[in-house]
Structures are given as structure tokens and as C-alpha cells.
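Forwarding these from the shared drive since the link keeps breaking.
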Amino acid sequence: MATLTTLVDGQLAIVAPVNANFQALNTDLVAAQGNITTLTAAAGNIRMLYSSSTGVGTVGTGEDVLHTYDLPAGTLTASGDGLVIDAFVFFNSNANTKTLKWYLGSQAITLNPTTTAPNNQFAVVQLRVWRQSATAAYLAGVVHMANWIGGTSATTEMLVGSTSLSPTWANVNTIKFTGEGTSNSDIIQEATTIAFFRNPV
């Protein structure tokens, strides 16, 4: 007959490796949690704010709002925080004068100052905005024009650069594209994305 001591020793022999496994698992979980915390912090440095692939066109004459986004107050809180703005725009097949603009708050920049009557052309807009201070921003970017998707005739419509933007970052700032033509759908904004990046320092 097994003695009590023998039974206890046998149970301990079974429990010991299980306990060791649980301790190792706990160590792994703690390490994984640390990795998740690091990844979460890194992910917070870049995030998508707005994305639309719903085409919006101009209506008749006058300036019309195409894609628009209200940047929440206090989104850009430190110098070096910024925005990445990309857009794809189609200009319809006619000889009408067509004007595409980009706004930050009430400040506007015309994006097709050279090709003022684009005819059956596409524009790819790439803009970058950096916060300089609580009431200042720097803008840089490029606008490319092409006659068709995949064509080799793309040209640089303009290089965008401005140090005179003066948004108040503590307030809501509307970011929008507008179009002005003569006929319906002279300009159609097909797609836009706006992403935020944080200064990691």
C-alpha cells in the first residue's frame, strides 16, 4: 500500500512541470503585452482620418464643394505633426474653363493655374501639411495632369509650396476641395484620402 508521503511526492512531481509551464506562459504574456503597448503607441503616430471614393461633381456654374472633411480641434498639437492629403480628380470632355481649389479653413490655393481648361484629363494631387506653430502651417505638394489613366503624357501642373497658411489648430479646420465650371460634372472628384502623422520626438 502506498504511503501518504509517496502519494504527495507523486502529485508534486506531476504539478511541478505544469507550474513551470504556467510561469513560462505568464512570462511570454507579459512580453507580448509589452510588444502590444509599443505597437499601439507606434500606430497612434499615423492614422487615417478620411477616405472617400464616392465621386462628387460640380453643378452648373459657380464654385461647388467636392470632398470635404472637418479636422477636429487639437488634432495637430505639436510642431512637426502633419497631414498627408491625396486626391484623384477628373475634368470632363469639353473646352469649358475649370478651376480646382484646395482649402484649409478659409485659405484657398488653385491647383490648376496652368491648364485652366483641362479637357478629358485627370489630376493627381499630393499635398503635405506640417504644423509650425499654434497658428501657422507649411504646405508642400505637387499636382500632376494626364490625358488618360496609365498614359505616358503626365505633366507637372504645379509645385505647391506655401509658408503663409495660418490655421488656428486649436479650432476645427475644414479641409476641402472645390470645383468651378460651366456645365454639370465639369469637374468630378473621384477619390480622396487624408491621413495624420505625429512628430515622434
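-- next protein --
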Amino acid sequence: MSIPVGATVTFVARRSLLPLPALRRQMRIQVRILKADSFGLAGATIVGIFVIVALAAPLLAPYNPYAYQYLPNGTLARMQPPSASFLLGTNYYGQDILSQLIRGSTVTLLVGRIHRLFRHRRGHGRRLLRRLRR
């Protein structure tokens, strides 16, 4: 497919939903609401910590979550209770549970982002179909 010689091509720049001053004003309102509501602040703090742990998972996990852990005497560290070496213990296969939990939070965050993306796209599809029916 080629463009004819006399044709003009225009690109439409995608603009943000809110201009910068309106975005700042909206952020100030959100911060004021969180300061007034202690439960909301607690929830936002928990979600923030969860996101930070998920993003920094490779740095925070003490062991490889898929590797088998061995005790100093050379035996597999199966079903070890929580200790200084394994803060949440190990599973039947000798894998550290804390490392699996931390690395699993990354997958959870990714699934949430993918769901949000497809939910947003589904809305665009419905609007397009509605417009085509007219």
C-alpha cells in the first residue's frame, strides 16, 4: 500500500486526560481525603508496600524461589519450620516459602495490570460497536 503523491498525512497527538494544573489539584484533593480518613490511609499504605515489594522482588527475595535448599549436613531442607535461615520455612520440595511469596507478588501485580488493560479495551470495543450500529 502506497500513499499518493498529493496526499497529506496527519498525526493526531494523544493528549492527556487532565492538564497538569488540574492533575495537581486532583492529587491535592486525594491527599487531603487520605489524611482525613485513617482507614483509607492504612489501605493506601498497605497497597503501596505491596507494590514496592512486587517491583523490588528480585532484590528482596533471600533465595531463588525455584531452587532446592539444603541443610549444612547436605540433606534437603524439607518441611523446615520458620527459623533464622528460612523466615517462613520451606515446603515439601525444600524451597523457601518467603521467596516464593515475594516473587509471586510480581505475578499478581502483572495479572492485575493485564486485567485492567483488557477491561479498558473491552469498553472501547463496545463503544465502537454502538457507533457502528447507528
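The chain has a mean pLDDT of 84. The CA atoms of residues 57 and 103 lie 6 Å apart.

- D.
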